[in-house]
Amino acid sequence: MVDMDTLVSLCKRRGFVFQSSEIYGGLGSSWDYGPLGVELRRNIRNLWWRDVVHLRRDVVGLEAAILMHPRVWQASGHVERFTDPMVDCRACKRRFRADHVDAQPWTHYCPAKKENKFEVPAGEPCKHCGARRTLCPECGKGELTEPRQFNLMLKTFLGPVEDEAAVTYLRPETAQGMFVNFENVLQATRRKLPFGIAQVGRSFRNEITPGNFIFRTREFEQMELEFFVNPQDTVEGQPADEYWHESWIQERFAWYQRYGIRAENIRLREHGKDELAHYAKRCVDVEYQFAIGWSELEGIANRTDYDLRRHAEVSGKTLTYFDEERKVHVVPYVIEPAAGVDRSLLAFLTDAYHAEEVRGEKRVVLRFHPELAPVKIAVLPLLKKRDEIVARAWAIRDELARRWVTVYDDTAAIGRLYRRQDEVGTPYCVTVDVQTVGDPAKGEAGDGRVTVRDRDSMEQIRVPIERLAPVFERLLGGGPWSAVAADYPRQSSA
Ligand code: ATP
For ligand 1, is residue 342 a contact (CB within 6 Å)? Predict the structure, then answer.
């Protein structure tokens, strides 16, 4: 598997991700998405939106404000409970999440042993003296304090006066926007249960130990669905909430694999009873094998009726659904698949990365699913000194760009241009050469054909320019290269 340093460096070099405010020395754990990163993010968001909202009959969208009434966060429990236990190092003053410190192996000088220096495995006490780690994992010298609870919400003040009355928070999740708008959406759309409200947007958490590139940051983007079900219903003999929970777990697990995550790198993890949030009936994480180890990519929780009940209590409004059949008002249960755009991007990037040897040279290729690839087609002139070639290449790029993200590049020799496109995951290259345009000096007419090259197999075919759009429609619509290539003459590969 590719290590994090290699990914970070590729991301910077090729314009996926830059450190925020780099010319000022950078802001810790804050990242900017460059020209390719922005396209990749957009593709992730759009695929999620298409599959979770547009293709379904039972989900609608919402875009709530990031700043919400402060009482939202009292009702949701975030003011009181959205905390992580933190410990401080008394020597170097660094701060850590207590559970993260516990999850690392540590070097222990055991008073109960003669040969006393050894490594204690992650999550365990010393098997000789029973001690848990007490020293700082960074400097190794300072004692760690007892864990204290630290609220993760980023506080801010609204208006010109910075006093307690003006305090509010940057939202730590998008979910509450859906709960407080439940009644509005119900009224506006006349939906019947079950139905979902989906939202994609920024969230903020004052993480104690952000890091690992874009895996954990203080500002990030979430893709969340709140799927409301009638707890009195049964589906296929199961309580409706349990049926829909399982159904969304399977759907979301399949989603990542549909867009290229390999089965061996993704798994489901059931939360233990001690780990469940106080309101949750069941929670399952989709985990990915990141370079830092297996970690959460998405959480899918059965939140019961906790959220709507709490908002009804605190706001004094009725947040129920009228069950026409039973003639009763019910408080819907909520199934919540909550994913992160940034973590998904990191997973898709990690999974796509391949380094291989081709004719004695290293080739780095991002094997993105075509729908995720930031650039779909690159149009390359074989000779940039021939005006007709350049003009034809630009014309092709402009035409294809109306349908697909298409770039033009003439800044190197063709072999290098191909490698550069491989390295950013562009599925197809189109090359315009002398044969395409002909040579008027020699009285030779062009054949009006261009070379289309496939990223993964590196095979090439000759395609008439006017056939490019239908060819890419097939290829980028999911048609296999081998089937499309069979219709056109092959060209020796480059
Ligand atoms: P963790 O245990 O890693 O802190 P969480 O369980 O608190 O995550 P959720 O509240 O379930 O996370 O948020 C849903 C999703 O939002 C996560 O699966 C992740 O993809 C994303 N996410 C949460 N916190 C961050 C963060 N600090 N940086 C980037 N993405 C995040």
Answer: yes
